[in-house]
Every structure is written in structure tokens, then in C-alpha cells.
């Protein structure tokens, strides 16, 4: 048979490698900034146009490159950072694989001017699609100036996958912030479409944090500093009272390299345990310095994941360092020795019916004491209430599996000829509503029901674009993180359709002038942060358009604020509104809003023996 295995040409191999290294303009920004740092630059300029789609330019005053090095840096696996296997476990530089410049040159038009300090002339190099088009001597300042133009010009399918300019610019801001935080001793500046976004002179870490996030951070930072023979932890944590509803301002650096680690984040969050408001996240910028042979950074193309030889020790030291900082600043509360610890919690009762289909846990002191049967409602006509709750095998996991609406006639069927019509609805622990129906007891999750009601309301508002706003007596000035500010401005039209009215105050600050008419005027800044955080969470896990995402986020966050004691009139109104919804039995995410406990299941709870 003929031979069928061929060696890929360099340009194609580079394009394949670029698929992992260069995912979007922000990937190019990250690689070029890290190269400037490795070149020992003390001043770095980042210039982008059209969110990096048209131009990404990085100008540094680093050591520069010779004519031969300038040509070699665009070859695959060409690097000055390592020379042997041993070097791979002593890495202190940002880059080391030698893939970035080859990958960028494969999918963009690149022009580079570079000159070593003390040289008479520099080198100008133009690369397009992995091919060197021009190489010539040029007069240029010492350092390196790289222009990356028309990213993915020769891979149109990849270019079509890029998001809007606002989205891509948010990712660029993320990468710029991380590098600027990691190296406060280096001066950084960022320009977008000829407008200066950041100008950060060389400074201490605390000054750099204030330069990026704003002067209001001056009051909330607490120094964190812990030295051990194994590793050191330094940086700043935010005081609990300044915690935000968004997660964006949490940074871990290992040997000055930004990493993402849910494990270490858990160490910090547990150190703050008992000090933070519900669903709030502290600010922190923490640097871990550890011997390079104790970690492995060569586990992911973006180098944002890391493996520790002894991660449990790292966890314990980080947790201890944060707790020590909280205690040193009189933030952590003292231990309470007066509490009675002699009473162990009662164990829940587990009951199973004859078919094994219904399983319930109930604690003696738990309110409401009822969990849903292991079944879910299915599509039925309005012939009767009980049919709605017949068991089915497959429980839907989201709204996409719910194919029909439920009319308000079910409510009439449920209460017709029933003693419940003369009884009061009971609220339990401001979380559940208990209502007697013909087949037994209906339990409504107050939060989930309100989420469903609000969601359908906001979907209708966004579709009709007919909303009523209430002007704030005193407009609120709200400072956001750079990425959150970019997201809010990107969604300005959708916010307006919901009833929010704000204007750009410059930088990362907005002035909120009005909110939706049905939203209580209190803690507007917190509400906006919660809404942005929920929107980002939805964006990370679901593929939704902007309006759908914002309607879900608004409903979920406002519903969480409505856990209050309700009058009988309010409870009945909630039930009426729930069954006026198109899909009353599930939240938009597929969580049940109500369950039925039938009489035979109640009897089983009290059977003797």
C-alpha cells in the first residue's frame, strides 16, 4: 500500500500550534507583555485598536535583539530561556516554550523593530503567515517595538469566532491588569483607539493596586506577609466590610506568574469564614514565592495552571497568612467560650415508601420538614390538579425541557371544594409557603417562586421595551473594577430596557440616575455588583443571548433580596402570580418552585413500627 503519513509544512504546523497559544487578541497581549518583562524592560507601552483586531503594539525599552535573534524568535521552539531538561525545573522567566512568536507570526501580519543597547543600528522584520517578507537594518531606539496587525487575517473561520470589541477589550484589560500587578516596579501604559486607559508609573505594590482599581482601595487594604522555610506569602487582602458581590478582584501569583487556583482561593475564603456578608467576595492580591523545583508550570498552554509538590502545605500556609493578617488588623473576631457545645444535632429521619420512589430526610428542628417526591411534573391538560404531579421517570434539568405552559385554571382546580379555601397559607422560616390542596400539602419555595415571577416579568419588559424607571433622589456614583465597568457599558442598552439609567463618569466610574420602578431604592451599588456577577456566572456556564442572560440574572438577584416575612395577602398574591406564569413549576435554571406531599406520604411519616 502507498505511504500516507506526511510531514506537515512549517506554516501549517504553526497555525495548528497557534490554535492553543493564540485564542484571541488578549492571548497576543499576554505573550508580548511577558516577553517585554523577560527582556528586563522598565517601561512598557501597550497600544491596541479595535480591541486588538486591527492592531496590537507593544513598545519596551528592554535589552533588544540582534539581527540573528530577531529572525530566530519566529522559529518554532526557539527560546533563550532554557537549554536543558534541568532548566525546565528552574524556570524564573515568564516564557520558556518558544512557541508564542511563531504562533503569532502564523496568524497575523507582524512588524518588529529591535535594537540591543549600544548597537549602532537595529533590525526591522516583517512576517506574514510564518513567512519572512522583509528583513533590513533600521534606525530605532534601544529595545523592541512589535506591531501585530490584522489578527487571523489568513484564518477567517477563527476571526469570525471573535466576540464584540467590548468583550475582547475586557479580556485585554484582564491580561494587562495581571501583568501590571505582578510587576509594580515596571511602568506600564495602555492606549485603546488613541485614548489613554491606564498610565501606571513605577511604584510600590500598594500604589499599583490603587492606580489600577482606584483611590478608594487605600482604606480597605490590609498587609499580608508570612515567611516560612518552604515558601513566602506577601501582598494585600481587603477588609471584610469592603467585600464586593463580584469575584473579579482576586489575584494569585506564584513566582510573579498569575495563576488560577480554586484550591488556594478556598484557603482564603475559609480564612474569611464568618466575617463576610452572604454571597460576598473579598479583594486580595497575594504573591507566593517558592523554589521553582517545587512546582510544575508546564501543564497548560496558557501557563495559568500550576501543580505543587506539596499542595496541602501551601494551602495551610496561605490560610494561616490570611488569618494572621486579619487578626493583626483587629478584623477577625475573638473566640466565644460561652457558647454551649454539649448538644449534638439530632440525626435526620429517613423514610422510604413501598415502591422506593419517595425518600425524605427530616430533622426535628428543621422547618417545613418536607422534600419533594422523586418525581417531576409533566405536561397535562387542565383536567385536574393531581395529574400535574404524577411521577415520571425523566426529570427535566432546565427550562428547555419544559414544553408547555400551565394555565391559571389549575389554581381553581386545586382549591375547588377543598377545605384549604377557608384556611390560611402558612409561611415557614421566611423561606417556604405551605398550602393545603385536595391531594395533600403543597410546599412552595418562596425564593424560587419569586425568581420565576420576576424572570417572566423582565423577559416581557425586554421584549416590549416598555419600562418605568424611578429617578434616584441623589444620583449614585459607583466605582467598578475595569472589567466590570467595561461589561456594564457594553450592556448599557439592555440595562436601559430594564429600567436602569446611568452615565459614564470617566474611567471605571458611572453615575446611576434611575433604577427599575419596582426595585426598592437601597444599596444600588450592591445590586449592580450582584447583577454583574450573576451575569458573568451565567455567561460562563450557559449559552444565552444578552437579554435572556440579563433577565435571569436580574430575577435571581432580586429574588434573593425578598426573603421577608409576608402577610396573608402577600402570600396569596405570590401564589396567584406564580400560577399566572407560563411555566410556574420551575425556575429558569430548572429548579423546582413547588412540590406536593400527598396524603399517603404524610401517613407514612407517622406509621408506628
Any overview of this molecule?
- The chain is built from 17 helices and 24 strands.
- With 609 residues, it is an alpha+beta fold.
- α1 crosses α4 (100-107), α2 (25-38) packs parallel to α6 (165-182) and α8 (262-271) packs parallel to α9 (311-328).
- Mean pLDDT is 77; it is low at 334-422.
Coarse structural class: alpha+beta
Helix content bin: 25-40%
Write down the overall mean pLDDT: 77
Largest sheet: 8 strands, mixed
Uncertain segments:
334-422
Number of helical elements? 17
- Strand segment count: 24
For the CA atoms, what is the radius of gyration?
Answer: 30 Å
Separation of the first and last Cα atoms = 77 Å
- Strand line-up of the largest beta sheet: 5-4-3-6-2-1-7-8
Form type = elongated
Strand content: 15-25%
Quickly list its features.
elongated; 5-stranded mixed sheet; 609 residues; alpha+beta
SSE order and pairing:
Blueprint lengths: L9 H12 L3 H14 L4 E7 L5 E6 L6 H6 L27 H8 L1 E7 L6 E7 L2 E8 L4 E7 L6 H5 L4 H18 L4 E6 L2 E6 L4 H9 L7 E7 L3 E8 L11 E5 L2 E3 L2 H10 L12 E7 L4 E2 L10 E2 L2 H18 L20 E4 L6 E4 L46 H7 L10 E3 L3 E6 L2 E6 H19 L4 E11 L2 H9 L1 H7 L2 E4 L4 E8 L7 H18 L4 H15 L7 H12 L14 E5 H7 L4
Helix pairs in contact: 1-4, 2-6, 6-7, 6-12, 8-9, 11-15, 11-16, 14-15
How would you briefly describe this protein structure?
The chain is α+β, with helices and mostly antiparallel strands. It has 17 helices and 24 strands. Strand 22 and strand 23 form a beta hairpin.
Amino acid at each position: 500500500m502507498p505511504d500516507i503519513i506526511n510531514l506537515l509544512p512549517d506554516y501549517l504546523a504553526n497555525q495548528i500550534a497557534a490554535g492553543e497559544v493564540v485564542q484571541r487578541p488578549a492571548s497576543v497581549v499576554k505573550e508580548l507583555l511577558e516577553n517585554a518583562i523577560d527582556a528586563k524592560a522598565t517601561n512598557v507601552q501597550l497600544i491596541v485598536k479595535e480591541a486588538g483586531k486591527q492592531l496590537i503594539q507593544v513598545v519596551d525599552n528592554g535589552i533588544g535583539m540582534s539581527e540573528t535573534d530577531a529572525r530566530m524568535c519566529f522559529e518554532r521552539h526557539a527560546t533563550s530561556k532554557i537549554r536543558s531538561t534541568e532548566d525546565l525545573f528552574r524556570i524564573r522567566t515568564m516564557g520558556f516554550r518558544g512557541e508564542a512568536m511563531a504562533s503569532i507570526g502564523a496568524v497575523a501580519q507582524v512588524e518588529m523593530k529591535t535594537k540591543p543597547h549600544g548597537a549602532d543600528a537595529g533590525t526591522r522584520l516583517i512576517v506574514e503567515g510564518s513567512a519572512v517578507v522583509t528583513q533590513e537594518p533600521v534606525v530605532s531606539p534601544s529595545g523592541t517595538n512589535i506591531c501585530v496587525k490584522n489578527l487571523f487575517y489568513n484564518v477567517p473561520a477563527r476571526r469570525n469566532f471573535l466576540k464584540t470589541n467590548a468583550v475582547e477589550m475586557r479580556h485585554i484589560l484582564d491580561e494587562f491588569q495581571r501583568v501590571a500587578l505582578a510587576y509594580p516596579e515596571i511602568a506600564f501604559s495602555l492606549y485603546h483607539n488613541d485614548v489613554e486607559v491606564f498610565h501606571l508609573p513605577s511604584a510600590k505594590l500598594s500604589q499599583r493596586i490603587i492606580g489600577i482599581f482606584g483611590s478608594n482601595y487605600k482604606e480597605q487594604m490590609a498587609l499580608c506577609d508570612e515567611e516560612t522555610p518552604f515558601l513566602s506569602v506577601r501582598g494585600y487582602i481587603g477588609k471584610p466590610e469592603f467585600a464586593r458581590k463580584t469575584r473579579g478582584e482576586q489575584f494569585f501569583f506564584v513566582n510573579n506568574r498569575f495563576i488560577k487556583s480554586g484550591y488556594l482561593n478556598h484557603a482564603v475564603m475559609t480564612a474569611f469564614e464568618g466575617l463576610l456578608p452572604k454571597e460576598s467576595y473579598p479583594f486580595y492580591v497575594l504573591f507566593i514565592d517558592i523554589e521553582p523545583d517545587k512546582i510544575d508550570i508546564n501543564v497548560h498552554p496558557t501557563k495559568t495552571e500550576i501543580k505543587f509538590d506539596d499542595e496541602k502545605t501551601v494551602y495551610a500556609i496561605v490560610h494561616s497568612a490570611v488569618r494572621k493578617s486579619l487578626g493583626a488588623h483587629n478584623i477577625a473576631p475573638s473566640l466565644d467560650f460561652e457558647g454551649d457545645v454539649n448538644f449534638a444535632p439530632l440525626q435526620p429521619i429517613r423514610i422510604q415508601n413501598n415502591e422506593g420512589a419517595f425518600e425524605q430526610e427530616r430533622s426535628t428542628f428543621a422547618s417545613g420538614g418536607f422534600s419533594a417526591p422523586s418525581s417531576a411534573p409533566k405536561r397535562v391538560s387542565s383536567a385536574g390538579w393531581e395529574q400535574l404531579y404524577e411521577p415520571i421517570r425523566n426529570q427535566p434539568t432546565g427550562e428547555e425541557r419544559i414544553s408547555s405552559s400551565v394555565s391559571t385554571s389549575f389554581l381553581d382546580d386545586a382549591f375547588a371544594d377543598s377545605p384549604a379555601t377557608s384556611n390560611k397559607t402558612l409561611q415557614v422560616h421566611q423561606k417556604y409557603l405551605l398550602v393545603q390542596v385536595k391531594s395533600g400539602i403543597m410546599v412552595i419555595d418562596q425564593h424560587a417562586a419569586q425568581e420565576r415571577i420576576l424572570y417572566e416579568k423582565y423577559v416581557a419588559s425586554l421584549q416590549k421595551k416598555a419600562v418605568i424607571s424611578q429617578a434616584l433622589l441623589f444620583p449614585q456614583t459607583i466605582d467598578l473594577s475595569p472589567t466590570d465597568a467595561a461589561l456594564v457599558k457594553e450592556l448599557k442598552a439592555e440595562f436601559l430596557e430594564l429600567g436602569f439609567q446611568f452615565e459614564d463618569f470617566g474611567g471605571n466610574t458611572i453615575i446611576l440616575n434611575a433604577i427599575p420602578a419596582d426595585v426598592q431604592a437601597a444599596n444600588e451599588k450592591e445590586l449592580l455588583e450582584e447583577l454583574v456577577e450573576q451575569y458573568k456566572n451565567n455567561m460562563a456556564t450557559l449559552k444565552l443571548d444578552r437579554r435572556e442572560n440579563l433577565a435571569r440574572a436580574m430575577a435571581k438577584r432580586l429574588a434573593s433580596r425578598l426573603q421577608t416575612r409576608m402577610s396573608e395577602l402577600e402570600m396569596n398574591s405570590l401564589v396567584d402570580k406564580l400560577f399566572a406564569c407560563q411555566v410556574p413549576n420551575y425556575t429558569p435554571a430548572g429548579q423546582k418552585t413547588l412540590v406536593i406531599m400527598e396524603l399517603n406520604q404524610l401517613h407514612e411519616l407517622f406509621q408506628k413500627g
